[in-house]
Amino acid sequence: MVGSDYYKKYIDDMIAHNPTTITIQRTEEQGNGYGGTITVELDPFDLSVMIYKKRSNREIIDTSGMIVGYAAGGVWKLLASGDADIKRGDTFTTDGIDFKVAFVNNFYDICKQVELEAVSYV
């Protein structure tokens, strides 16, 4: 992508102006050698990201597929650099809130736009 270095620097500057250091906790399914799987907790690691809350509008659809209304609310988002190792299902705690990664959008390797679920408030 032409000029992607400019956008990578722009994203890095945005994160640097409002950084949050999070410790990612990840579990992974591995084979147990007998045809099944076991869940293994990997070593936690730190990432510097920007977390923010954004307004979200969602459609409410009935069983026939017709839109019957709209719901608005706040959604927690995370912005990370394109080389950040963050995956769906990762968990972390910051500012007294336990988060789980719900969706990761890798935007042309420039940045990762992540939607979060607030699992619990500590």
Task: Provide a descriptive summary of the structure in words.
The protein is 11% helix and 60% strand. Strand 4 and strand 5 form a beta hairpin. The mean pLDDT is 92. The protein has one helix at 4-17, and strands at 20-24, 27-31, 37-41, 45-61, 67-81, 91-94, 97-107, 111-121. It has 122 residues and is mainly beta. The protein has one helix and eight strands; from the N terminus they run αββββββββ. The strands form two sheets. Strands 1-4-5-8-7-6 form a six-stranded antiparallel sheet. It has a two-stranded antiparallel sheet with strand order 2-3.
Secondary structure layout:
Elements: H1 4-17, E1 20-24, E2 27-31, E3 37-41, E4 45-61, E5 67-81, E6 91-94, E7 97-107, E8 111-121
Antiparallel strand pairs: 1-4, 2-3, 4-5, 5-8, 6-7, 7-8
What is the alpha-carbon Rg in Å? Answer: 18 Å
- Given as residue ranges, the uncertain stretches (5+ residues, pLDDT < 50) are none
Strand order of the largest sheet: 1-4-5-8-7-6
Number of helices: 1
Q: Estimate the mean pLDDT confidence.
A: 92
Number of strands: 8
Helix content: 10-25%
Largest sheet: 6 strands, antiparallel
N to C succession of SSEs: HEEEEEEEE
Q: Could you give the distance between the termini?
A: 42 Å
* Class inferred from helices and paired strands: mainly beta
